[in-house]
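Hi D.,

Good news: the full-assembly prediction came through. Inputs first.
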Amino acid sequence: MGAAALEPKPMRQKINRWPARLDVAQSLSGLLLVLFIWGHMFFESSILLGKDAMLWVTRMFEGAHLLGRPYPVLVSVAAALVLALVALHALLALRKFPANYRQYHRLNRHVSAMRHLDTTAWYIQVITGFALFFLASAHLLVVLLQPENIGPYASSDRVWSGRFWLLYGPLLLIVHLHAGIGIYRLCLKWGPFPAQRLGLWRGRIKLAAYCIVAFYLCLGTASLVTYMRIGAQHAPYAGERYAPEAVE
Amino acid sequence: MDNIPVRQHRTLTINILRHNPADGDSQPRLQAFEVDETDAMTLFIALNVIREEQDPTLTFDFVCRAGICGSCGMIINGRPGLACRTLTRDLPDEFTLLPLPGFELIADLSVNTGKWMRGMAERLETWVHASDLAGVDLDQMEQPMDPHLAEQIYELERCIECGCCIAACGTAQMRDDFVGAVGLNQVTRFRLDPRDQRDDSDFYQLVGDDSGVFGCMTLLGCEDMCPKDLPLATQIAFLRRRMVAV
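Then the structure:
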C-alpha cells in the first residue's frame, strides 16, 4: 500500500524553515518581554525606597551616572525597542488567536466543558494578550514621547492628576497574568523534562509561576498606591519637579 | 452488630446526546436515562444496561471493554475518556455523555475515529520507510533490537487511537487540519525506529508547520486526558526541539 511512497523521490523538496523560525521567535520575544517586565517592576517600585531612590534609578536610565548629565532620549530609545518587541510578539502570537466566529465558538465550548486549568489559562492569555495590544502600547507611547516626564513627582502627578492609575491598575494585573502563564507554558513547550518527571516539574513550575505573579502583583500594587499617594499630596503643585536638595 | 451495613446504591441519571445524521428527520437532543448503579459499574456496563433494558436504538461503540481497542471514547461530563475505563462511582448522580467532537458522527455516541486516524496516518506516512523493503526476506530472522530501544518504541506504540487527545486539544478543536498529539506521537515513534530510514528533514516535511508540531500551543489537554497515560507532552516538546534543529 505504501509502495508509492517508497519509490525514490525525483527531487528532494526544499525545507521551509519559516514555521520553525516563527515558533522560536514567538517564544524568544515572549521570554525577552517577560524578563523585561520583571526587571521593570523592580526599577519602577524603587519609589517604595523613597523619592531619592526613584530619582537615582530615573537618572541611571537617562545615562546621568555614566554621561555626566541626563539624556531622556535614551529612555525613548529603550521604549521604542520594547514597543518594537511587543509589536513583533503580537504579530507572531496573532497566528494562534482564534480567527473567526466558528473558532471562537468551538474554543468557548471546549474551555467551559473541559474545566482544564492549562486550557483555561491559555484562553486567559488570549484575552490578556488582546488587552495588552492597547494597554501596553498606551503606556509605552507615553514613555516614548515624554521621556522627561519620569521622576518622583512627574510620575506621581501623571498617575494621580493625569489619572493614569486607571491605565496602570488594569495593566499591572493583565501583564503579570500574561507573563506568568506565558513563562509556565514556555517551560513546558521547550523544556527537556523526562516523561517520568514531567508531572513533578510541571507542578514546581506552576507553583513558581503562582508565587512570582503574586509577588509582582503585591509589589506593583504597593508602588502604584505609593505613586497615587504622592500624586494626591502633590496635586496642588502638579507639574513641579522633584529636587532632592529642596527636601533637605 | 445487629445491622450489617449495606451500601446505598444510587439511581444515576444519564443524559445522552441522541442524533442520527443519516436520518433526515433526526434532531440532536439530550435524552435522560435512569440506571440503578451497581458495584464497580463502568460506563460501558451502564450503557449496555440502557440498551438492553430501555432503548435498543442507543448507538455506541465498544469492542474490548478493557481499554485496549479505543472504541468507546466519549465526552463524559465535558471531558474525553473511555467509557470502559470510567467507573460510575467517580461521577455525580447526574451526568452527560456526548460523542467525541472533531470526528464524523455516526449516531448518538458513535463517531468515526477510524476515518480521521487513517487520514492522519496517510498524511504523516506513519509506516516504516525503507528503500529495500521489497527485497526483505521474510523467512529470515529480523535484526535484533536493543531492548531499551524496543521498550521506548513500545511505550509510544501503546497508543490506541481512541481520539481522546483530539477531543481534549483546544488547537485541534479550533483547527481541523491539526494532526494532534496522536499524530505527533506516531512521528516520534517512527523517528525512534531503526528500520525507518527517514531523517529529521523528512519528518520536518511532514510536521514542520502550523498543522503539525508548530501548531501545538501546549495546552496539555492531551497529556492530562490520555487514557493510556502516554508521555505526550514530553514527546511533543522533544519533536519541537528536533524540528527546530533541522
